[in-house]
Amino acid sequence: MVADGLVEMTDTGIRVSLAERLLIRRICMTFDAYLKSSQLVNKSTEIRYSKII
Prior knowledge:
The protein has a domain at 7-39. Strands 1-2 form a two-stranded antiparallel ribbon. The protein has helices at 24-29, 33-39, and strands at 7-9, 14-16. By secondary structure, the protein is of the alpha+beta class. The longest helix is centred in the last third of the chain and has 7 residues, at 33-39. The chain is globular, with a radius of gyration of 14 Å.
């Protein structure tokens, strides 16, 4: 995402430009520990989050 110009890494965190804020949900999904653990569960398990378009 850095190489694509979507986010900027700083000493204090990650910055998303105003133009890229429409993608903020997808960007945040990268860091969502709950989302990662739910993908490892059996496929018959209920999905507990909505998908992005």
